[in-house]
Automatic annotation (TrEMBL):
It comes from the Bacteria. Pfam families: MMR_HSR1. GO terms for cellular component: cytosol. Residues 58-191 form the G domain. InterPro entries: GTP-bd, GTPase_Era-like, P-loop_NTPase. This is G domain-containing protein. It comes from Acrocarpospora macrocephala. GO terms for molecular function: GTP binding; ribosomal small subunit binding; rRNA binding. The chain crosses the membrane at residues 428-450, 470-491. One of its GO terms (biological process) is ribosomal small subunit assembly. PANTHER family: GTPASE ERA, GTPASE ERA, MITOCHONDRIAL.
Length: 541
C-alpha cells in the first residue's frame, strides 16, 4: 500500500528510527510476521551502516542456464565460477573484489567465504564486490535459501534473465514484484541475446519492459547482453562503474527496504492517506447516564434528600416528635454511606463498599451498550484490524468497573454533614416553646392538685378571658407545631438543594471512573494508532 509523501525527503537515520517506532507500536496489533520483518530491516540497516560504505555489494542473480556465472567470469577476467547449462553449478555465493581492503567484516556479515581479489589500485570498479549467487530455481533447497538470504541484504541487484525464461512467473512473483520499491538498486539484464535473430531482440526487450511495468518496476534499466560476444557488456560495466563510484547504493537499498517495510505495515493496518481520527475529548452522555444508573446514583440522591429532611426534623422538630424520630433509621446509613467520626464540613466518607443494590439486568445491558458505543465512537476513522483493538481497549477494564464505581460513590463528598445555622436557632426555640408548654401544664396541674386536696383555690391571672396557664399550654403546643411545619417545608427545600449538589458530585465521580476505565484505554489505543500512522508516514519518506 502506498502512503502519500510530501515535502523534502526525511534522512535515512530518522526514517529507520520511525520504522522502529512503528514496529514497536504495532506489536500485538498487527500480523506478527510483518512486525518482525520491519524489526529485521531496522536491525539489518544498523549493521550495514556500521560496515564499509566504501564498498558496493552487487549480486548477479538468475535462473539455471541464464548465464550469470558467465557474466561473472567476464567481469572477473577469469573462470572463477563454474559454468553450467542444464543444472545448477553454483552452490554457494562467490565474490570477486576490486580493492578489497576493509571489506572483510562486510563479507563476514554476508557470510560469503569464497573470495577472489581482483587487485587494488586505480581501477574504475574499485570498491566493487561482485557476487555470483546460486540459481533461484535450483532443485536444491539450500541453494534457494542462499539466494533469498543474499537478495535481502546486498546493495545492488542485477537480475540475469534469458530469452527462454524471462517471462517465468516464478521470478516475477517471488522476486521482481516485491522489489517494486527498489528501482534505484535494480538492473535487469536479458542475457544470451546472441541466440536471438536480430529482429527478435528488440521485441523481446520491449516485452520484458512491459512485464516489468506490470511488476511495478517501470523505469528500471533493462540491458541486452551476451557473455559470449560481449554485446551490451560495455553498457553494463559503465552502469556498475557509475553506481559504485557514487558509494550510495547501500543507502539507496536501505531506503528502499524501509519504504517496503513501511508499506507492508501500512497494508497490514489498512492505512490510507487519510487514515486517522480526532480524539474523543469527553465521555458521551449515554455512558455517563448508564454509569450513574449502574452505580445507584439516583438511589443515593434520593437518600440524600431524605437524610437531610430526617436530620432537619431531628434538629428542629417538636421535642416529642424528635424523640420518636430517633427510632427511624437514617436513609444514608442504610446504604453504609455514613461520614467518618469528626468529619469536616466537607464530609469525606469512609472508604469501602456500600450496600447499594447491584445493577439490574437492564442496567447492565444499558451500560454494556454504552461502553460498546464509546469504543465504536473512538474507533471512528480507524481501519481494521486496529479499530477492533480500540474497541477492545474500551472494554478491557470493565471487570473492575462495578467495584470502582461503588468505591467512587462511597467516597464522594455528598455535603450532608454540614448543619445549617438556622437548625440550632430553631431547635432552641422549640425547646423554649416546649418549656412554656410544660410550664403552663404544670401550672394547671398545680390548680388541679389544690382542687383535688380541697385546699383554698387561687385565682389564675388571665389574658382577656383566657387564663395564663391555659394560654401557656396551648400557645406553646400550637406555636411549636407551627414552627415544626415551617421547618419541615424549609427542610424539604434544603433537601432538594442538597440532593442536586450531591447528584453533581456523584455524576462527576462516576464520569471520572468511566473516563479512567473506559474512555482512557480506548483513547490511549487511538493515540497509539495515530503515532503509528505518523511513524509510517515518516518512515516512508
Amino acid at each position: 500500500m502506498k502512503i502519500l509523501r510530501r515535502g523534502r525527503e526525511v534522512p535515512l537515520e530518522d526514517r529507520l528510527q520511525a520504522l522502529g517506532s512503528a514496529a514497536e507500536l504495532a506489536e500485538g496489533r498487527l500480523d506478527g510476521s510483518v512486525v518482525a520483518e520491519a524489526r529485521k530491516v531496522v536491525s539489518r540497516a544498523g549493521v550495514r551502516g556500521s560496515l564499509s560504505v566504501d564498498h558496493t555489494v552487487v549480486a548477479l542473480a538468475g535462473a539455471t542456464g541464464s548465464g550469470k556465472s558467465s557474466l561473472f567470469n567476464v567481469f572477473a577476467g577469469s573462470s572463477l565460477s563454474p559454468v553450467g547449462v542444464t543444472r545448477p553449478t553454483t552452490s554457494k555465493a562467490r565474490a570477486a573484489l576490486w580493492d578489497p581492503d576493509g571489506s572483510g567484516p562486510l563479507l563476514d556479515w554476508l557470510d560469503v567465504p569464497r573470495r577472489h581479489s581482483m587487485g587494488s589500485g586505480d581501477n574504475p570498479l574499485s570498491g566493487l564486490i561482485l557476487l555470483d549467487l546460486p540459481d533461484h530455481d535450483s532443485i536444491e533447497l539450500s541453494h534457494r535459501q542462499e539466494v533469498d538470504r543474499l537478495v535481502a541484504v546486498v546493495d545492488l541487484l542485477v537480475w540475469v534473465l534469458d530469452p527462454q525464461k524471462y517471462a517465468d512467473a516464478a521470478i516475477h512473483d517471488r522476486y521482481l514484484r516485491p522489489l517494486a520499491r527498489h528501482k534505484d538498486v535494480t538492473v535487469i539484464v536479458l542475457n544470451q541475446i546472441d541466440r536471438l535473430p536480430e529482429q527478435a531482440i528488440k521485441r523481446c526487450l520491449d516485452d520484458l519492459v512491459r512485464l516489468l511495468a506490470q511488476d511495478g518496476l517501470d523505469g528500471v534499466p533493462v540491458l541486452g547482453t551476451s557473455a559470449r560476444t560481449g554485446q551490451g557488456l560495455t553498457e553494463l560495466r559503465g552502469m556498475l562503474t557509475q553506481k559504485v563510484a557514487r558509494r550510495r547504493a547501500w543507502s539507496a537499498r536501505l531506503s528502499a527496504d524501509v519504504v517496503t517495510a513501511a508499506d507492508t505495515l501500512a497494508a497490514a493496518a489498512n492505512l490510507t492517506p487519510r487514515s486517522g481520527t480526532d480524539s474523543v475529548d469527553r465521555l458521551t452522555k449515554p455512558l455517563a447516564d448508564a454509569l450513574a444508573q449502574a452505580a445507584g446514583v439516583p438511589l443515593v440522591v434520593e437518600a440524600v434528600a431524605k437524610a437531610h429532611r430526617h436530620r432537619a426534623i431531628m434538629a428542629t422538630g417538636w421535642p416529642i416528635t424528635r424523640w420518636l424520630r430517633k427510632f427511624r433509621p437514617d436513609p444514608l446509613r442504610r446504604f453504609h454511606l455514613t461520614p467518618s467520626s469528626g468529619s469536616s464540613p466537607n464530609d469525606v466518607w469512609v472508604a469501602g463498599r456500600s450496600s447499594l443494590p447491584s445493577p439490574t439486568a437492564v442496567q447492565r445491558s444499558q451500560l454494556d451498550t454504552a461502553i460498546r458505543q464509546i469504543g465504536s465512537d473512538v474507533a471512528t476513522g480507524v481501519p481494521e484490524p486496529w479499530a477492533a483493538v480500540v474497541r477492545h481497549a474500551a472494554r478491557s477494564r470493565t471487570d473492575d468497573l462495578a467495584d470502582t464505581l461503588d468505591r467512587a460513590v462511597a467516597t464522594t463528598s455528598l455535603g450532608v454533614s454540614k448543619r445549617p445555622h438556622w437548625w440550632r436557632a430553631v431547635g432552641l426555640l422549640q425547646w423554649l416553646l416546649f418549656a412554656i408548654m410544660i410550664a403552663g401544664a404544670l401550672w394547671l396541674l398545680a390548680y388541679f392538685g389544690l382542687s383535688y386536696l380541697q385546699l383554698p383555690e387561687a385565682s389564675a391571672p388571665t389574658i382577656g378571658r383566657l387564663p395564663w396557664p391555659t394560654a401557656l399550654l396551648l400557645g406553646g403546643a400550637i406555636t411549636g407545631l407551627l414552627v415544626a411545619l415551617l421547618s419541615r417545608l424549609a427542610a424539604w427545600l434544603g433537601g432538594r438543594h442538597r440532593a442536586h449538589k450531591a447528584n453533581k458530585a456523584l455524576q462527576t465521580s462516576v464520569t471520572e471512573v468511566g473516563e479512567r476505565l473506559v474512555l482512557t484505554p480506548a483513547q490511549e489505543e487511538l493515540t497509539r494508532f495515530q503515532n503509528f500512522t505518523k511513524a509510517i508516514n515518516k518512515a516512508s519518506g
